[in-house]
Amino acid sequence: MKAFLIFLSICAASLVTAPVPTTAQGNMDSVRGFIERNAELLGVATAVVQETNSIRARGLLETATTLHKQSVGLLEQNSNAQAGRVAVRAREVIQQTISVAKRDARIEEQAVRTMERATTRLEQARIVFEEDGNDKIVARRLILESADNLRRAREQVQQHMFETSLRLAESSLALSNRAIRMLRRDGLGPDVAEEIDRTQSIIERAGESRASHDPALNRLLEQANELQRRAVRSAERGDAAIAVEQTRGARNLALRAMRAGGGAGASDEEQAVRAVALTDAVLEGARDVLGESAHDGATRRVEEAARQQDDARRALGDGDYKRALALSTSAREAVRAALRGMDVAVDPASVESALARTDDAITKLGDTIAGSDRATAREFFERATSRQREARAALGDGDPRRALALTRVAHNLARSGLSAMKDAEN
């Protein structure tokens, strides 16, 4: 489809450059020629719109078609001056139709691609969450919100609201990334975690700015992501020196992709919009963390970053996209720096109540799936039950932190099973 749209765009460009009948009022042949060229261009616009799902472009095409018919009718009535004016307006709407159709097709493609990335990342976040042995209630909240945003993104695509879908998918991706970094940070050590965070930020920015169909740049980013994953695994094994070396290698690959992508990637406006959406998600996650802690210094730094993000949003509204991108990126890095090394305190008194809540959720799920052949929900039930047993064993061993973490994993699994049953009923 992309190649076909490019071909149609070339055809449209050659027609758009046709002269406008500035003296059409007194020159019937000039007006007729202009209207005939409009008919050709309208055919191109129709073909472009048929290759997209753009509701806006379809509406514009209807308007352009109506105006073109009016200009033809006026010419047949020898109303040359009025026919010329309507034909000029028709040409403007035809050009706008093609522009909107191409833009919406590009955004739809970006939204679908981002949803695919967000889906993969969300699944990775869930796996890391379930395998984690420490209390990460905020990470669970981030994962749930990421899943909700991804669900809404899919709904918006079905309604052909592609820009909204893209923002939601990018927010989902950012939330999953935030959850994974939070879950892994404790075992990495502050210096290694900082190196890995820096690299991940650059990889995300490279993904935003690269040419989406350039195989060479995609390969560079794939290599960067793979090396970054190896760095995380090395850090988790305690090989800090190797992890730093690997993550710096990944960073260099991502920087190469950014430099090579240059102006071939997203426009300044698109990059700024994505950056603001990503920083909003990071800020929201940070406030969740701070709500569970008493780090006054981190709170001040995050609020300063929030004010900088407000400046970025104003710059975006004013059309100063480069400034908006710079401010929002700086704010995001400031938030990550403020959160780096933080940990959320665990209240031992909450373990028993958490275990009881999980027992209730598992019992409810068990009652719901009784007599049902829903394999997915049954799998959630079995996994939740297993984790709950591990939680009680950890509490018996005198490890309330691990017990709380495990029972919350079990609770999350039970809720997922209930959601699966509800979706199946609908």
Could you explain the architecture of this structure?
The chain is mainly alpha-helical and 426 residues long. Among the domains are: 2-101, no CATH class; 350-425. Helices cover 84% and strands 0% of the residues. Helix 4 runs parallel beside helix 6, helix 7 packs antiparallel against helix 8 and helix 10 runs parallel beside helix 12 (321-339). The longest helix has 52 residues, at 80-131.
Return the structural class. mainly alpha
Low-confidence stretches: 1-20, 22-26
The main sheet comes to: none
Strand content: under 5%
On the 0-100 scale, what is the average pLDDT?
76
Task: Determine Rg (CA atoms, Å).
Answer: 28 Å
N-to-C span: 35 Å
Could you say which overall geometry the principal axes of the C-alpha atoms support?
elongated
Percent helix range? over 70%
The count of DSSP E runs of length 2 or more, i.e. the number of strands, is 0
> If helices are DSSP runs of H or I spanning 4 or more residues, what is the number of helices?
15
- Secondary-structure element order, N to C: HHHHHHHHHHHHHHH
Short recap of the structure:
By secondary structure, the chain is mainly alpha-helical. It is 84% helix and 0% strand.
